Amino acid sequence: MALVNLDQVHKYYGDLHVLKGIDLKINKGEVVSVIGRSGSGKSTLLRCMNGLEQYQEGGIVVDGKEVTTEDIQVRQLAMSVGMIFQNFNLFPHMTVGENIMLAPTIVLKKPKYEAERIARAMLEKVGLGEKFDSYPEKLSGGQQQRVAIARALAMNPKVLLCDEITSALDPELVGEVLKVLEQLAKEGMTLILVTHEMNFARDVGNRVVFMHQGKVWEEGDSNTLLSNPQTDELKQFIGAVL
Ligand code: ADP
Ligand code: MG
User: Fold this and answer.
1) For the packed helices 112-125 and 141-153, what is the interaxial angle rounded to 10 degrees?
2) pTM of the complete model
3) Which of 12, 69, 152, 211 registers the highest number of CB atoms within 10 A of its CB?
4) How many CB atoms are located within 10 Å of the residue 226 CB?
5) Mutual orientation of helices 112-125 and 96-106 as an angle, nearest 10°?
6) In the chain, where are the structural domains located?
7) How far apart are the two ends of the chain, measured CA to CA in Å?
8) Mind listing the pLDDT tens digit for each residue in 172-208?
9) Which residues are in the ABC transporter domain (predicted)?
10) Does ipTM surpass 0.95 in this model?
11) Relative to the CA of 40, which ligand 1 atom is closest?
């Protein structure tokens, strides 16, 4: 069975039909880029996979567990699915170390020394070992986003969802964040990323999923799909972003 399985998922916001029967299977170790115009449902798709949004029809199973928004399920899910957002979402009143230790301590009930050991190891991994006691505001955007990645990794997730995590960064800071993602991909982490970084999608990603009007309009091997789009919609989209 695939690590992530979506079966005919429909999502509505009131009367607005946002996801219109999404089928998607993602295997362990795959790097999948989700692309598409603003409003096509990319963020909603990720939020449904993470239990942050309810869906009304169909099913989502991650690592053998059905995804629902019920409280206990969401907590369990937090152990399988990590998510990183465009605006970092670090707690400003906590140090970098405290930010990373929070969920392992509260959700996984790790003792403090163990949470600290994990936090330091994850910070090393993203190249910020010396920032443990810094406050987020003292860091650059790229560094903050790398802390957010370390925080997600501290929960030892099976899959990492990234929603436009480089879109808010100054151009010169994008590379350091993509480099961390590339390293994770090499280590076998399963990554699902909403991104506008077509070079990354092509060079690091295995597969591209093009969303249009709430549907998976086209998907396939990243090289093939980006160099040889089949639908007019994807041709237009690629023309607009490249
Ligand atoms: P994308 O990430 O591809 O830009 P979204 O998933 O954010 O798309 O949005 C898909 C559609 O759902 C859009 O029409 C958007 O306006 C709508 N939408 C997103 N979030 C909400 C919400 N919380 N309430 C109502 N409508 C929403
Ligand atoms: Mg979005």
Assistant:
1) 130
2) 0.94
3) 211
4) 21
5) 130
6) 91-156
7) 35
8) 999 999 999 999 999 999 999 999 999 999 999 999 9
9) 4-238
10) yes
11) 3
